[in-house]
């Protein structure tokens, strides 16, 4: 109520919706609180309290917004095109079950063989997968910054730490939201 100026048309993300920004702010508070979870003052109830006021569905997600390909590329595409050494990790590709996980073809290129090929840790192989079209494409116009999926992963972790039996359900909801 003390703000004299609120965003309007100049807000490319939420079009001046202050309540949407508050949800993002509370989800960010939960993110940063979670990052201090190894500290003695960590309390899962505090994190869950932030999340209760945060992003509550994929409709609330906060995305960066980018213009035409080539004129205003997203930050991941710009980052990766200047660094040819960023490739898929074998550990991550294997943990996703390669093509069994429906996100694989979005996260990694499939090197023309229909499957992602991860690079073994500690080496740099040829013929491995680079980042895929979800983030590393000049055509990617909306890049997730703060999302419901992340909020659900944070919630699941807090529920595990507080011995809440719903943690597994929340984890499944997080996975579904990310797909």
How large a portion of the residues is in β-strands, by DSSP E? 5-15%
Count of distinct strands? 2
Kindly provide the radius of gyration, computed on alpha-carbon positions and rounded to a whole number of angstroms: 19 Å
> Largest sheet, if any?
2 strands, antiparallel
Number of helices: 7
Flag low-confidence runs.
none
Secondary structure category: mainly alpha
Q: Would you list the SSEs in sequence order as H and E?
A: HHEHHHEHH
Task: Describe the protein in words.
This protein has 179 residues and is mainly alpha-helical. Helices cover 39% and strands 5% of the residues. It contains seven helices and two strands, in the order H-H-E-H-H-H-E-H-H. It has helices at 18-35, 44-52, 75-81, 90-95, 104-107, 148-161, 167-178; strands at 62-65, 142-146. It has a two-stranded antiparallel sheet with strand order 1-2. Helix 1 packs antiparallel against helix 2 (44-52) and helix 1 (18-35) packs across helix 6 (148-161). It is globular and about 55 Å long. The protein starts with 17 loop residues before the first helix and ends with a helix. 23% of the residues are buried. The model has no long low-confidence stretch (mean pLDDT 87).
């Amino acid at each position: 109520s003390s703000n004299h100026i609120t965003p309007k048309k100049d807000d490319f993300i939420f079009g001046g919706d202050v309540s949407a920004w508050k949800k993002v702010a509370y989800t960010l508070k939960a993110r940063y609180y979670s990052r201090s979870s190894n500290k003695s003052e960590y309390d899962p109830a505090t994190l869950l309290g932030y999340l209760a006021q945060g992003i509550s569905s994929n409709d609330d997600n906060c995305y960066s917004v980018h213009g035409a390909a080539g004129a205003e590329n997203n930050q991941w595409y710009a980052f990766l095109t200047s660094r040819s050494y960023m490739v898929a990790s074998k550990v991550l590709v294997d943990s996703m079950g390669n093509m069994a996980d429906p996100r694989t073809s979005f996260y990694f290129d499939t090197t023309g063989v229909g499957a992602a090929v991860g690079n073994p840790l500690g080496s740099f192989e040829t013929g491995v997968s680079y980042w895929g079209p979800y983030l590393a494409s000049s055509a990617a116009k909306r890049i997730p910054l703060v999302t419901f999926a992340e909020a659900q992963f944070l919630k699941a972790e807090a529920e595990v730490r507080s011995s809440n039996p719903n943690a597994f359900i929340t984890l499944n909801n997080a996975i579904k939201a990310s797909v």
